[in-house]
Amino acid sequence: MNHEDIKNGVIDILVDLTGSDDVRDNLDINLFDTGLLDSMGTVQLLLELQSQFGIDVPVSEFERDEWATPNKIIAKVESM
Amino acid sequence: MLNLQPYENPMYFVYLLIGLIPVIIGLFYGKRFRWYESLFSLFFIILIFDADKWPQGQALIVYVLYNTLLVWGYTKYRTAAESKNKTWVFVLAVILGIAPLTVVKFTPLFATHPSILGFLGISYLTFKVVGMIMETRDGSIKEFNLIKFWQFLLFFPTISSGPIDRYRRFIADYDSVPDRQKYTELFSKAIHYLMLGFLYKFILGYIFGTLLYPYMQHMAIVAGQHTFLHLSWGVVGVMYAYSGYLFFDFAGYSLFAVAISYFMGIETPMNFNQPFKSYNIKDFWNRWHMTLSFWFRDYIYMRFVFFMMKHKLVKSRVATAAIGYFLLFGIMGVWHGETWYYIVYGLFHAVLINLTDMWIRFKKKHKGLLPSNKFTYYFSVFLTFNTVCFSFLIFSGFLDQLWFH
Hints:
Chain A is an all-alpha fold. Chain A has a single domain, classed as ACP-like (Non-ribosomal Peptide Synthetase Peptidyl Carrier Protein, Chain A, Orthogonal Bundle). Chain A has helices spanning 3-18, 22-25, 39-53, 70-79. In chain A, helix 1 (3-18) packs antiparallel against helix 3 and helix 1 packs across helix 4. Chain B is built from 15 helices and no strands. Chain B is 73% helix and 0% strand. Chain B is an all-alpha fold. The two termini of chain B are 39 Å apart. Chain B has two domains: 33-176, no CATH class; 185-404, no CATH class. The chains are: A mainly alpha, B mainly alpha. The A-B interface holds A 19-20, 35, 38-40, 42-44, 46-47, 58-62 and B 134-135, 138-140, 282-283, 297-298, 301-303, 305-306, 309-310, 317, 320-321, 324, 360, 364.
């Protein structure tokens, strides 16, 4: 899967979860500090990443700081 | 024999700082004297549990041996080359992990004496152990190291009341030595936190807890003798006095624990982040007793929701979140103790957080309907502060005294 596909896939998931286009406009927006993503949203994100990209992220490996922005999530998905 | 409870009086800090001198000098020169650190820690743990506290000391020893076996056993099972990683083994390990704490917490319901298994800090040690079992299950912790396990579990600055650290985070610090610049930074922060801790615990905590709180209690009891539900303005005074005491006493304590950790080159996480500036209840729980609420978030709420959603046990995600909140705050309430006011406190917060979520959903749906400006922001902070203080009034048990005694 190339960079654009991953990027668009992640952004679509985030737009859907946060119900906001802010995540499309600003890829460095902090999803947790802004309250766009809470624990429930995080779990949904992990499940979506699992079903769409086949990557398995256990809750133990979810460090909020490392997943805080759309860009960071895209980088994480690419590295897996 | 001398017995010293952690951070109780100024002399304790004198002894601590004397003991810390070699650690500090070592770390300034890039050396960690692990043997000395261990002896120093052991010495102060013995001071907590010796003399008339020796029964607790024995309970601690039994507890540590029991959990050593448990975590060693589960890690061995989980990391075996062909581990089946069965769910029931994991569940059993978690149940065995929380069993001692459960016995200790429920003993008062059935007996007049506290359980002989109990000791100061059992809750915090249990949080650490159960966290480790869950991370081992996830494959994030891959080995069992006896010395590191004990260092983590018995890290004395946080042994009695947290903050609750995480194994991998702690060990990363323990295994390394901060460079000079980093350690200088930690050192100056530690001094600052110590001073702030003194201000919080010994001055503000004293003013709120020892001066104002009993005074307000007296006023409330006298004024409420013939009123409806014994309510009076005195109860409002009790509410603010107790809230101030609860925060300054515990935040002060946590600052001490963090400061002493920093002196030892361990970055124990902070417990409070200006909680009274929160603009809603969710924000509040991200700022209040953070290591506990994050523990509940990561090890109970998220895992529960993950499980429910993955197996599609409840269709609606709103319902799943709600059940998760009631589970989390229900357990938190019971953990504080089996009295009606702790449980009501937990349920009250569960209701609040569900209402907050409903409100957030409503606002998302009706964008632009409601104004959002400086005034509404300060109003939410004001509202959150008072709601939280009210929940602390429940938590304080004063209403129990007022109504039922």
